Amino acid sequence: MSWAFLRDLLSGVNKYSTRIGRIWVAVVFIFRLLVYIAAAENIWKYEHDEFECSIKQPGCENVCFDHFFPVSHIRLWALQLIVVSTPSLLVVFHVAYRESREKRHNQKLYRRPGEIDGGLLCTYLISLILKIGFEAVFLVLFYKLYNGFNVPRLVKCDMRPCPNTVDCYISKPTEKMIFLYFLVATSCLCIALNLSELSYLICKYSKKGYVKRYVRKHQ
């Protein structure tokens, strides 16, 4: 698939993000999207063809491969990238709504349509919470589907139609495990960045609201 849409989306969100948000965009673009396109996709490209079992019973290899790899790592990673980036559309749509509202009324309704305040602040916070939730869900999904974050060299399979327990070998297990650890590390880094940005915005606007109430009270 073409990743141009995701690249354009991240570039568009970058205009309305805080400094921490811009770091998150850079991490997603450089350490996840570019790594996926340049290297990771090729490592899992022929994973089914290179999966070998010690017996050539018809259907045995397919059943064992499906059992140990119910969903391809790389396809799940691609789905994670898309889903985690999607909440950013909420912010883009909200800014577009503000701009169209100003055009419709033919007057300046906001100081800057892309400034994070009021309703846009709520939308931004919701997008951060969704990103954190999606990242956590995919990490748990990876862990549950593959019984941890390891890629074994040898797996034993006794699924039908295999006549007995057979040994099956996974191609390039060390290389795949390194990229899997990299995937987990970048996901954890993105969660940390999103939590930091969420805390920063809540503290910043809570403090601003407190100062306004304090000023009004003494006036």
Automatic annotation (TrEMBL):
Taxonomy, superkingdom: Eukaryota
Gene3D superfamilies: Gap junction channel protein cysteine-rich domain (1.20.1440.80)
Domain Connexin N-terminal span(s) in chain numbering: 42-75
Transmembrane domains' residue ranges: 21-39, 77-97, 118-143, 178-203
Membrane topology listed for this record: Multi-pass membrane protein
Cellular compartments annotated: Cell junction, Gap junction; Cell membrane
Connexin cysteine-rich domain residues: 134-201
Record keywords, A-Z: Cell junction, Cell membrane, Gap junction, Membrane, Transmembrane, Transmembrane helix
GO biological process assignments: cell-cell signaling
Keyword Cell membrane: yes
A GO MF term: gap junction channel activity
Gene Ontology CC annotation, any one: connexin complex
Keyword Repeat applies: no
Family: Belongs to the connexin family.
Function: One gap junction consists of a cluster of closely packed pairs of transmembrane channels, the connexons, through which materials of low MW diffuse from one cell to a neighboring cell.
Description of how the protein assembles with itself and partners: A connexon is composed of a hexamer of connexins.
PANTHER family reported for this sequence: CONNEXIN, GAP JUNCTION BETA-7 PROTEIN
The protein, known as: Gap junction protein
Organism: Alectura lathami
Organism lineage: Eukaryota, Metazoa, Chordata, Craniata, Vertebrata
